[in-house]
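Protocol step 4 of 6: structure prediction from sequence.
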Amino acid sequence: MTIQYVRGDATNPLGPGNKIIAHCCNDQGKWGKGFVLALSRKWPGPEEAYCRWYREKEGFGLGEVQLVQVEPVIWVANLIGQHGTKSGSHGPPIRYPALREALGKLAAEALPLKASVHLPRIGCGLAGGKWEVVAPMIEEVLCAAGLAVTVYDLEG
């Protein structure tokens, strides 16, 4: 399988069956810029779950995944793939090994659900990643596992 690219909004995933909307989160409990704003406008649950997960610290950290069901056939996957929120002496916040690990855990969650995965160009906005690094990672981890993956680019 390969990544399917479409113009549209990842919070309105296309197609039948179970769907997981995945996005990249930071490891500092901060939620409030980028794609998460669209998620929060549509469903409050992913933000509430992420903030609670951060406060409780149980299983929270780089490379981890939290699945939050928001509709009968839709889940949001909070992937911890960035350290902090700002670029610094160690470069941008994206942590590619952590994102790869989180994608592997996402695949393990998606397969039993027979879910397709829907996402914006994760890790390439505020996290500062490069799509030419992230896209092959998605193909090697999610697509190679047999998961249908759709990447959404907003129109305009």
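Step 5 (inspection) to follow. The chain has a mean pLDDT of 95.
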